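Is adenosine monophosphate placement plausible here? Inputs below.
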Amino acid sequence: MRRAASAILCLALLLALAGCAPQAQTATVFAMDTVMELTAYGDREAVDGAVSLIHALEDRLSVTAADSDIARVNSSGGGAVDPGTAALLRRALDISALSGGALDVTIYPLVRAWGFTTGEYRVPGDDEIGALLKNVNYAAVQAGEANVSLPAGALLDLGAVAKGWTGDQIAALWRQVGVKSGLINLGGNVQTVGGKPDGSDWVVGIRDPFSEDVLGAIAARDLAVVTSGGYQRYFEREGVRYCHIIDPRTGKPADSGLASVTVIGREGVLCDGLSTALYVMGLEDAVRLWRENTGFDLVLVTDGGQVVITEGIEGSFTPMGAYTDKEIKVMRRG
Ligand code: AMP
Ligand code: MG
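Reply from A.M.:
I modeled the complex. Tokens:
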């Protein structure tokens, strides 16, 4: 009799626990030129709020949408913008300075000349590149609380930081409304809120730049994991591959010897800006910048397939597939 009673109690407890387990609420959105997947446990409104936020940010930040803050500033050399747009621009200018100009928010004339905004790809001549480079200089951009001023001829493009910023805004919204467990995947930009509903870490895969497989996984909790790589967007002409990340020193697609850069840290916009910048800078300068700063770790893959990670993620990175048996080089601060 006692045994039967305790069995019933156990069953009731299990049912109660199952009833409490938060349901996955999801949304798939096409925005900012990519497919975005949102998952928040237990809160439908939080997911719907994130979808609205994505569309609002895209409307403000898109360089091609006719009436965005960025398009208006580009057509008139400056003016009033949403305070959030100005805050993002100020953060992007900081990261541009941190990277010594490898990230440059005024690179747009070059991105456009190579055809990456329209998909009508072309290889501009050296004279054209030289003329366009004269207007590339993030240091001459001024961003106030809710206004921007550009030097004559300069054009802004926040494509290298917009997704990381969007992820930060969604994560902040979700934390504010009490979401304990969420996954924000903005096409190559992943942000995690808390851990999985069962309390374990999220597992975020990192793409192998040479195949469709993953090269490894990062165990993540309240972290952004952001990858930039030439494989994400490129075209080929006469056997040469031209990628969408432009080296502001040359005006040509970056060719630094890195195939992909993943930046892991708390702040998505920093990870996003740095992933683009470090892809331009190459292995040595990327590791030097990591040694001189805190707040992020790296997974770097060279064109030769060597994987280099920084010591902060030594315990949370697991190589997978073809990389399981490869040597993983760990960079240390000391
Ligand atoms: P991401 O995918 O975050 O690496 O950003 C790449 C996008 O940023 C490109 O598609 C361009 O719109 C823009 N971009 C390309 N090169 C640079 C650069 N050196 N600095 C800032 N933005 C860039
Ligand atoms: Mg980026």
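Short version: The longest strand covers residues 24-31.
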